[in-house]
Amino acid sequence: MKLLNRDSSDFLYQQIIEFIDGQQSQGLLRPGDKLPSLRKLSKQLEISVPTVKQAYIELERQGRVSARPQSGYYLQAQQVRTLQPRPSKWAGSKPTEVKCRSLIEQVHDAVHLPNSVALGISNPVHAHPPDKALARLMRSVISKYAEKAVSYGPVNGDAKLRMQLAYRYQEQGTVVNYQDMVITNGAQEALSIALQCVAEKGDVIAIESPCFFGLIELIESLGMKAIEVYTCTEDGVCLQELEKTLTKHPVKACLFSTAINNPLGSLMTNHQRQQLVALLESHDIPLIEDDAYGDLYFDGTRPKPAQLYSEKGLVLTCSSFSKTAAPGYRVGWLIPGKYEEQAKRIKRAQSCSTPMLQQWTLTEYLLSGEYDRHVAVLRKKLIYNCERMRALIAEHFPEETCISKPQGGSVLWVRCRSSVNTSDFFQDAIARGVSFAPGGIFSPSGKYRNYMRISFGVKWNDQIVQAVKALGELVKIQQEKQHN
Ligand SMILES: Cc1ncc(COP(=O)(O)O)c(C=O)c1O
């Protein structure tokens, strides 16, 4: 098919741009969509790959497309306002008694409502579920291990799984002894054990602000206090703010998502992570690193775990397969640093062991190489969904809405006009068949009431589009109410 005119005075790359404009105006390409690969378009237009690339680079220069390494080029929504860091607005913080709020319960309950689009929960695996491969492997595990597959397992979990995990850390440069690791019921149990290893009831735990509400609830359930540390939309927890906090308050431990923060999607550089560990170890303060999203980075290579930089054994690493493979399996792990003995004792007292059937299935998944292939595809789908969701929100929400540009994970952090309280229309959203996570639940001191977290860990379909549209309408109604 010849669509370009070689006799025209316009450069060929300009004609390619016009071709893309044409596709957009006909609705064949929409904001957030992935552009055809260089090779595909060069074949379609019978033109060289470098010429197509020249056009894409020009579109990128004009801010009309964004390039994602190893994934491709995506059409930007022209009107997306990206959430910017606002350190000047940070008014400091003080230790807060954490109070369990019923809204968290409602966000969880909404996931299970029939005929409802659950955008309030972060489940990246929805974007690319590996259920068939896991079901096949589980069947073979059941026939291989027979009744052992349903029996109690060792307190610290299956040795083969721990070895596989330790080997993967070693590949990234972090030496981990598999005998010290503890397999847990998801990252949540790993975090709970880690907190109990290093702190007691009444102690102050520094957390990121905003912070995943599950961690806030966990701190509450252990009777500890939380102090919020300003966390930047781009590169995570602010080290200067942390230093100030350490001098003013008796911080017993820090609990940070050192790789991808939920809900910001921010990502510390490896260098900042190293500085963070050095700062905390110089004060003898343990760091509990929540690395649940570490494998879901969008660009470059996997962020190094803070564990790598620990010299005193004060870093406790928590992670799981929940965000990459199977949240329902409840398999996670803890690398307890120097708290190995305490960690095993608490695990034994708390839940005895983690189901073997799921552990063995995941071990086979890792060994077969299928896990890595699956995660590579999952990352690409999430990158794609992220662009589409940003564009969709920009299209349907009020113009002044600002949206995060995450560097990984599966959620967007959306800021509405300051007069809007997003929890006020949570029930109205449920009534319209969609749920989201209101911003207030991401801070123990009630910050972020005009924010909301929207998940793009979804299988894309028209229902998603309608759901986002409905949310946009509700925000507009709220704004008007406040205005009148
Ligand atoms: C930041 C973060 N940490 C930990 C967890 C808990 O993970 P798991 O399901 O493995 O317990 C979640 C789950 O949503 C999360 O978002």
TrEMBL record:
Keyword presence, Transcription regulation: yes
SMART domains, sorted: HTH_GNTR
This protein's UniProt keywords: Aminotransferase, DNA-binding, Pyridoxal phosphate, Transcription, Transcription regulation, Transferase
InterPro entries: Aminotransferase_I/II_large (IPR004839), HTH_trans_reg/aminotransferase (IPR051446), PyrdxlP-dep_Trfase (IPR015424), PyrdxlP-dep_Trfase_major (IPR015421), PyrdxlP-dep_Trfase_small (IPR015422), Tscrpt_reg_HTH_GntR (IPR000524), WH-like_DNA-bd_sf (IPR036388), WH_DNA-bd_sf (IPR036390)
Residue stretches making up the HTH gntR-type domain: 10-78
Molecular functions per Gene Ontology: DNA binding; DNA-binding transcription factor activity; pyridoxal phosphate binding; transaminase activity
Domain of life: Bacteria
Family: In the C-terminal section; belongs to the class-I pyridoxal-phosphate-dependent aminotransferase family.
Identification of the protein by name: PLP-dependent aminotransferase family protein
Lineage: Bacteria, Pseudomonadati, Pseudomonadota, Gammaproteobacteria, Alteromonadales
